[in-house]
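Folding problem:
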Amino acid sequence: MKRKICVVTGSRAEYGLLYWLLKEIQADKDLDLRLVVTGMHLSPEFGSTYKLIEKDGFSIDEKIEILLSSDSEIGISKSIGLGMISFSEAYARLAPDLLVVLGDRFELLAAAAAAMVARIPIAHIHGGETTEGNIDEAIRHSITKMSHLHFTSTEAYRKRVIQLGEDPSRVFNVGAIGLDNLKKLRLSGRRELEDRLKFKFGKKNILVTFHPVTLEKSTAEEQFKEVLAAVDELKETKIIFTKPNADTDGRVIIRLIDEYVAERKAKAVAYVSMGQQLYLSTLPHMDAMVGNSSSGIIEMPGFNKGTINIGDRQKGRIKAGSVIDCEPKKAAIREAFAKLHSAEFQKRLKTIKNPYGSGGATEKIKKALKSHPLEGILKKSFYDIDFH
């Protein structure tokens, strides 16, 4: 009898990381993929990216609408509640043997909590990490405690999941799953990219992705204006913006991006969703990624390119030597660019080692999803490290 694997995805970035795993599950004769799509995928405002999933050859078994028109704290909380109701109904219809979730977004908190109540074992990818500026921090660790199989991106994160009381035999360090894209996707060359983006690269180029720091109250507008002021000073530099996710105060950043690009069409362009292949193809042609995206921490070092990481959103993550941390102030960002372009830093980039590995996570995760015993897995004993 096939093992029924249910995978939930709620954002374009997360789907891009899950793509090869979904393909592996779909192709395995002993596994039965059930795909649940929610969150930003179903929102026209964020690009209706469920269409991309269908175009990629996946059948969507459940579409769960939970996003409200508000990006306030109340709106996010209501979305979580709506998700709990809707996921529970979907699980009753799908009856999965195992649920797979990746990361730490609020949609996944609802998905995991509903599965826990429904007595469905949970496999969690990218647990044990820290992002001290975000509600994602608490969500991620909460999902860890609700989960039964764990796939971490570094050995340090594996140890942290065990520190949270999880049985070491169920915690696997597989590396960052997103790095599989760097090996498996055919990335576009510069000329093809310019044609697809309808945008001519400059002498220097940067990609800017900035999200709200959700444990800070109403700082998104002030901080992003500092970012814009700093990058606007750059000479002979073209700018590609990717717009933020559906987080608290995300819409103010979207508005500021649209206003900036409208006034500087020759210098800057913005995208709601580029898709994983186009997005990753862009990175090796950038001089730096600027902002506070996890992609600057995990994927960008794989291209031996620099990242200017602004503010506290990614505070606590393990970082390669290619990442320059700075405060969300114009002067600090200006100093970070000076360091980025220095001969010493550019020389160091050539020998950067990515602490998140070099790919291969997909096959390791699929193997465990397929073979790990599920009998009796729901009843967990707390693993006390001091007692072992």
Remarks:
- The chain has two domains: 3-175+360-387, 188-349.
